[in-house]
Specification:
Elements lengths: L2 H41 L6 H7 L1 H20 L1 H6 L2 H33 L1 E2 L13 E5 L2 E4 L2 H4 L8 E3 L4 E3 L1 H38 L3 H28 L2 H25 L7
Parallel strand pairs: 2-5
Antiparallel strand pairs: 1-4, 2-3, 4-5
Helix pairs in contact: 1-3, 1-9, 2-5, 3-5, 3-9, 5-7, 7-8, 7-9, 8-9
Length: about 270
């Protein structure tokens, strides 16, 4: 098989891989949006502040910004993008990228806010079952249900505590799990922000003098450490959280693997746009 045939085959495989990964990311992003919407219907009310809205929809805000940023990276680093994106288009992508950076940093603030909200607890001084329907019970990360009289028969009221200033109560075992997942979300978000900062740096210099050896080696080891951190967080979600969270994390790693392959191809001395 000639090198040209191998190159064509590899391009076809990468195209199919991109289609599968990007389509799957769109689907899982829609699921997270629906989860946030359901949680908002239960928690938010007329007295809720914008901070409460940000905390509830932090996952959706973060996900939509990441999708837009992934598209921008794809256009900036792929052979298709390098051939068809004009200078004005590149400036527009830069504006979109900056907006996405602001949003994902703000989403990180939302994750931190959610973690702080979960960390602030107080004793439950009354029997919540005496006011059934007024309290929400934490059943999982971002999942709540109304504490009805029927539900009261399945929980140990003596073990319940509540979040400070909110009619949200929890059992100790569920609380420990949710707090761990909240910390994982903060670490995951921060690690991804550092990853895209390195990728953006690579994109800025690749068109000038390609990636010099020292720069390539430094960014390689830095991203290797960050990707390892992200893989560990994904594994934690798979064990403590749900298989959906684990698969979503793997999909995002796959999406940025595509960007890494684009950058690698762009950095080759023999690189030419198709």
């Amino acid at each position: 098989m000639t090198s040209l045939a191998v190159s064509i085959q590899s391009h076809h495989f990468l195209f199919i891989f991109k289609c599968v990964v990007y389509s799957a990311l769109c689907f899982t992003s829609y699921q997270f949006l629906m989860e946030d919407y359901v949680a908002a219907q239960l928690i938010l009310n007329e007295s809720s502040s914008w901070v409460d809205v940000i905390n509830i929809f932090s996952v959706s805000i973060d996900t939509l910004a990441w999708l837009a940023l992934l598209v921008a990276f794809e256009l900036e680093t792929s052979r298709f993008g390098s051939q068809w994106i004009t200078e004005k288009g590149k400036h527009l992508l830069s504006v979109v990228s900056i907006a996405c950076y602001l949003i994902i940093v703000y989403a990180l603030v939302g994750y931190i806010g959610k973690m702080l909200m979960l960390s602030s607890v107080e004793p439950l001084l009354e029997n919540p079952c005496a006011a059934a329907g007024e309290y929400l019970l934490i059943v999982d990360m971002d999942e709540y249900e109304s504490l009805t009289q029927e539900r009261c028969s399945t929980v140990s009221v003596e073990s319940l505590s509540k979040l400070s200033g909110k009619n949200i109560i929890f059992e100790p075992e569920i609380y420990s799990k949710v707090v761990g997942l909240a910390w994982a979300s903060v670490i995951n978000s921060l690690a991804w922000i550092l990853v895209v900062a390195v990728i953006q740096f690579e994109i800025l210099i690749q068109a000038k003098d390609r990636l010099k050896e020292l720069t390539r080696r430094s960014s390689y080891w830095l991203k290797a450490g960050l990707y390892l951190t992200l893989l560990l967080v994904a594994s934690f979600w798979g064990v403590v959280g749900s298989i959906v969270d684990f698969l979503d994390a793997v999909l995002w790693l796959s999406g940025f693997l595509i960007i890494e392959l684009n950058i690698f191809n762009f950095s080759r001395p023999d690189y030419q746009a198709d």
